[in-house]
Amino acid sequence: MKIEAVIFDWAGTAVDFGCFAPVNVFLTIFEDAGVAVTLEEARKPMGMLKIDHIRTMLEMPRVSEEWARVYGRSFTEQDVQALYSQFETKLMASLAKYTDPIPHVKETVQQLRQAGIRIGSTTGYTAAMMEVVTHHAAEKGYKPDFLVTPTDIGDKGRPYPYMIFRNIEELGVKATKQVVKVGDTTSDIQEALNAGVWAVGVIVGSSEMGLTEQEFKSLSDEEQQAVIEKTKAIFEQTGAHYTIQTMRELPALIETINARLV
């Protein structure tokens, strides 16, 4: 009994250090609507299907109150759809820029494959968005064995477990305890827990950390450790079985998990 598959998230986990492609667009569409949101508010639902992300932001008490102040009424589903339409257009225009693999990802995937482990993936992006991401990521050397988007399972994205289940089925894994899910948001952790697989939060480059690579590297050792510990605590509070600072630690962690499965 050992780990047979690892399922990676995409933005903030495998590509797009800091998960900035969607965050910048969320900030823009709300600003264009006359309702300013904070970076923290834009990041909190990260990992969800993007229309669900917008709906969740609008349901936040402060954002909901601000929307009512600006428009004189509560938000409607029509508002959600209008914001999402703008989000989709703006994201598709910029998405290709945010497809660089995060450090250690390509080497780690190669190491896992050499150990006979299959590589799956889930995402909060739609199938159309992922056509852009997968094409450019593959050109840069990252291509998992399988991808499931919310589009493929009736738009029931995270925290529903169905994208993971579809990966398990396609990759031919015998038991959920033989699967590790690695992600960079609390939605990723919830998805993994709901699917009954090992939940691992990756810290450096994550949406939860919320820093560009340059910003992170510019911090002192003490400052880096502080943001690492803060992010680690968020994952642990959400229920992650383990956290890793970078992908470089994943193969050793899988050996640790394998020892527990014996």
Automatic annotation (TrEMBL):
Family to which this protein belongs: Belongs to the HAD-like hydrolase superfamily. PhnX family.
Record-given protein name: Phosphonoacetaldehyde hydrolase
GO cellular component annotations of the record: cytosol
Entry note: cofactor: Binds 1 Mg(2+) ion per subunit.
InterPro entries reported in the protein's UniProt record: HAD-like_hydrolase_sf, HAD-like_sf, HAD_sf, PGP-like_dom2, Phosphonoacetald_hydro
Subunit structure, interactors included: Homodimer.
Task performed by this protein: Involved in phosphonate degradation.
EC number(s) stated in the UniProt entry for this protein: 3.11.1.1
Domain of life of the source: Bacteria
Enzyme class: hydrolase
Pfam families: Hydrolase
Residue numbers binding Mg(2+): 9, 11, 184
Catalytic activity: phosphonoacetaldehyde + H2O = acetaldehyde + phosphate + H(+)
Catalytic residues as annotated in Swiss-Prot or TrEMBL: 9, 50
Record GO biological process: DNA repair; organic phosphonate catabolic process
Keywords: Hydrolase, Magnesium, Metal-binding, Schiff base
